[in-house]
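Q: Give me the 3D complex with pyridoxal-5'-phosphate.
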Amino acid sequence: MEFNTLVIHGGIDGDKNTGSVTVPIYQTSTYRQDAVGKHKGYEYSRTGNPTREALEKLISDLEGGYAGFAFGSGMAATSSVLMLFKNGDHIILGDDVYGGTYRVIDKVFSQLGIQYTSVDTTNPINIEKAIQSNTKAIFMETPSNPLMKLSDIAAISDIAKAHKLLLIVDNTFMSPYLQRPMELGADIVLHSATKYLSGHSDVVAGLAVVNSKELANSLHFIQNAVGAILGPQDSWVLMKGMRTLPLRMDRHCENALKISKWLSKQTWVNKVYYPGLSSEVENYKSQMKNFGGMLSFEVSDENTLAKLMSNLKIITLAESLGGIESLISVPAKMTHASIPVEKRNAIGITDTLVRLSVGVEDVQDIINDLNPFK
Ligand SMILES: *Cc1c(COP(=O)(O)O)cnc(C)c1O
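A: Here is the predicted complex, encoded as structure tokens.
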């Protein structure tokens, strides 16, 4: 099945009992057993729920994995995956991963004895150099957030395999429609499904996909033991959003490319970060089908930034991304505020850096809205 068909018919396609073309919402906590220990595959909804399971099968199909798992947020998915590691293990972490990922590793998992080194993953040599005897995994994002730096998943996977490390890729920015890390050698793919997968800014959810039975058993154990599951209603809402992923992504990509080209010509913009504009993009065409709906740009000064923000009528100033509506944010003050200021400046997340999640509106309306001098 090709992707556009898989996204509609993948996972569990409707309901066999009634013919319903959508999966029912099984709003139940528990299941009747025919005799002690004799049940129909479901015992308790933390352990398994048919609506959640349909979603988990769908994301696994879309990423080409062995099994999928749904959690109450992207951070719950990330944290549950990090619980695969133990006291004394070391992880190599991309240096501009999502702020919350950095925070949970730096502030929570480090207290539990999990060590990490931040590395610029755009050059795989940096990763090789950071490997220690206790290194167990590489955690990366590409494009990175918010600077849209590209990293070579296949090359990093080669390093991971040579050193028997797990490669974990947060694929939130691309979605499986544009990039499938497992085909390039990743072991675990993570999503904040709150973003492009849901696509409508109406649910907070996280998904993880693993590529082996062993990892599936371990992660299901953690999902059930720790309990950070996604409820059946949210599972259903998320699945509904996912069914239109390719339609939305095509428009996001088309709009973002046009806007990034327009921004590059503005005198009040110092720099535009969009993978589709990057000179290195030729090297990455085999790993990403298109360049996504996220872009960042650096405004010349704080005054212009203030004008830009106060003039907005269509674009919403808000955290988050990936919805049908355009959202704008200032990472240094919002999503990335938990990263120390020296570190932020060192990696380029300045106070005048703006991140735009380009929506699916008419592109000219978005462009008109972005003019600080109108
Ligand atoms: C939003 C986001 C997360 C966290 O997901 P939540 O659903 O907000 O918990 C993780 N990674 C990336 C790249 C994100 O954008």
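A quick observation: Residues 73-75, 98, 100-101, 141, 145, 170, 172-173, 192, 194-195, 204, 206 surround pyridoxal-5'-phosphate (CB under 6 Å).
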